[in-house]
Amino acid sequence: MEDEMDMEVEASSSSTTTTSPAIPSTSSFKRFAIKNSIQTNFGDDYVFQIDSSQEKSTLAVSLSTNAIKFYSAVTGQYIGECKGHSAPINQISFSSPSSPNVLQSCSSDGTLRAWDIRTFNQVSQLNAGPQQEVYSFSFGGLSNNLLAAGCKSEVLIWDWRNAKQVACLEESHMDDVTQVHFSPGHRNKLISASVDGLICTFDTEGNINDDDHLESVMNVGTSIGKIGFCGEMNNKLWCLTHIETLSIWDWKDGRNEVNFQDARTLASDSWTLDHVDYFVDCYYSGADDRLWVIGGTNAGSLGYFPVNHKGNAKIGSPEAVLEGGHVGIVRSVLPMSCLYGGHAPNQSIFGWTGGEDGRLCCWLSDESSAVNRSWISNALVMKSPKTIKKNRHHPY
């Protein structure tokens, strides 16, 4: 694999100014070279998700071995790991209100666990019940005291301060609840999405129950994989399904605004690389009010495709292409602007990606000097540049 890759940025102006270290603005027209400077190879282990601590410059990486490993977000240096889950980890997040040193995780073992990343010890655990699985979680509520979890056909809610369960919403969904999110700016509003194809909104004030607190139901019509907020005042939702469709919804009035049933075809037709096989995620820039859908190929190439959901709805040509870092399906993309609220101290880092090839890749702009490093997870040995080129480790 080559050490240097290309990322193309297409826009309408000749200015070379960019407003974000992760996504170029529409006012830029510049060609970047992306260097895959740091590759952490986990062998046959999958990388499920990457998340970051804004205050601690730390990356958390969940693996198919049910472990979570930690790295420096700037240098890629290994820091430590947490073990305890006995089934696949479905979500990790540094969103805990209790401390920036706490990482929260949920798993198909039916638990939500909190980890202190200073000691790598578990500090708390909530149990969803026997035979349950926890697919997602979110902190919120008017007092920021609630922890909601998406489980098998249920949404469970705790007061995380005393670990007391305050609600079990079991009548709104008929299948696995893949996503739960408290709305930014409307902390009492909880939104859930499920394999049953429904997106539900709840008011979490008072004594929470299905009958009195279910506010609206949106029918996507097929199994939902991911949802996220976009638009002014976060009043819209983007929705990715398990059959790779993309739709935009106004969650306040329950209205579908755009439905891209052929999203993969539209994305594939806009570039010259292989057919887009899947979508990893969406990325929304509130400053520019712009949305991108991140598509990938089975060979590991990625593209940031702009989504126009106003007026003439379309999926445009990719404004960023990451090619050559992965050799398999990419599971997680973390733009560097997700750290530090969009103002990364290391402006040269574009972001991090991880996938089923067991690789954790760091992407750099050509304005930085190349850093030639590699780690192998079981040995945690840093190789010299000469050794890497002669004996590069391959997962297969």
From TrEMBL:
SMART domains: WD40. PROSITE patterns: WD_REPEATS_2, WD_REPEATS_REGION. The keyword Repeat applies. WD repeats lie at residues 82-125. The keyword Magnesium does not apply. It comes from the Eukaryota. Residues 11-24 have a biased composition (Low complexity). Keywords: Repeat, WD repeat. Residues 1-24 are annotated as: Disordered. Pfam families: WD40. SUPFAM superfamilies: WD40 repeat-like. InterPro entries: WD40/YVTN_repeat-like_dom_sf (IPR015943), WD40_repeat_dom_sf (IPR036322), WD40_rpt (IPR001680), WDR89 (IPR039328). This is Uncharacterized protein. It comes from Aquilegia coerulea (Rocky mountain columbine).
